[in-house]
Design goal:
Elements: H1 5-12, H2 21-34, E1 40-45, H3 52-61, E2 64-67, H4 70-78, E3 86-88, H5 95-104, E4 108-111, H6 114-127, E5 131-136, H7 162-174, E6 178-184, H8 194-212, E7 220-222, H9 239-247, E8 256-259, H10 263-266
Parallel strand pairs: 1-2, 1-8, 2-3, 3-4, 4-5, 5-6, 6-7, 7-8
Helix pairs in contact: 2-3, 5-6, 8-9
Length: 268
């Protein structure tokens, strides 16, 4: 479809924003279909574009929402995305945000540190509620992307290292107010190489197996987002290859796969 942007600018004035919902639909359907052999949830990273119409369109297609503020959680709820499809991630969550997320009864809160896990537990205790949580694991994998958007190495200070994560899961599993149901990793944005995604997924999947060996059974395997798009001459990852790389690491595990694309869905 050809769009005359100059004509639109004359009619509506600038700045104005044009969204291609046909493209968004095609991107969502392609990604979702690549995981059709397994239980999966495509959870849109709202930070990529928080326009209510965009969130609603993706929600109507079946997407969930990956949110990094309580404001984004409220946007997702406002347009009809079910609480059980909403994940609250991000560093620096305030007590008020954690409290509201628990009251909204969303799918889970993704804990980025041991301190945050303990804070979620304390607030859940005050509310006399069970907090469903996941833990963001740092697999120490180089994503081969720009260093400013790399998040999967220890030096990036996102998430927790494997040994610490195991201790956190053991603690959460014993807690009256925490219910560890998922595990999460996200190694960076604008990913154009398949190998780091496979390597990270394999490391985290092995951790899930080690948790199962001590009777800690998770339900969700959250691979984050970051699928790269073409700005110039980048060679991008095909969704099918992306899915196969992840699926190949999960043999013997009964998990719902969650992926959190942002610009992959919205940028044309």
């Amino acid at each position: 479809m050809s769009i005359n942007f100059e004509q639109l600018a004359n009619k509506y004035q600038t700045p104005y924003y044009v969204y291609d919902f046909d493209h968004i639909t095609a991107q969502y359907n392609e990604l979702k279909s690549t995981f059709k052999a397994r239980k999966s949830l495509v959870s849109y990273a709202v930070k990529a574009n928080s326009n209510l119409s965009v969130i609603k369109h993706l929600g109507d297609l079946g997407a969930g929402a990956d949110c990094v503020s309580i404001g984004e959680v409220k946007r997702a709820l406002k347009v009809g995305i079910a609480p059980y499809k909403i994940i609250f991630s991000g560093v620096g969550k305030t007590d008020i945000e954690i409290k509201e997320a628990l009251e909204f009864n969303i799918l889970m809160i993704n804990c980025e540190s041991e301190a945050e896990l303990l804070r979620v537990e304390l607030i859940a205790k005050e509310l006399d509620k069970e907090a469903r949580i996941s833990i963001r694991v740092n697999p120490n994998v180089n994503p081969n992307t720009h260093p400013y958007i790399s998040t999967g190495l220890h030096e990036n200070k996102f998430g927790v290292e494997i040994d610490m994560a195991k201790r956190m899961y053991i603690y959460a599993n014993k807690s009256q107010y925490l219910n560890p149901i998922g595990i999460h990793f996200h190694i960076g944005s604008q990913l154009t190489k398949l190998e780091p995604i496979y390597e990270a997924s394999e490391i985290v999947a092995d951790m899930v197996r080690s948790l199962e060996a001590i009777d800690i059974k998770l339900k969700f395997f959250d691979v984050g987002g970051g699928l790269g798009i073409k700005y110039n001459d980048e060679i991008t990852i095909k969704p099918y290859d992306y899915a196969q790389a992840v699926l190949s690491t999960l043999k013997g595990l009964d998990l719902t796969i969650i992926c959190e694309p942002g610009r992959f869905l919205t940028v044309n």
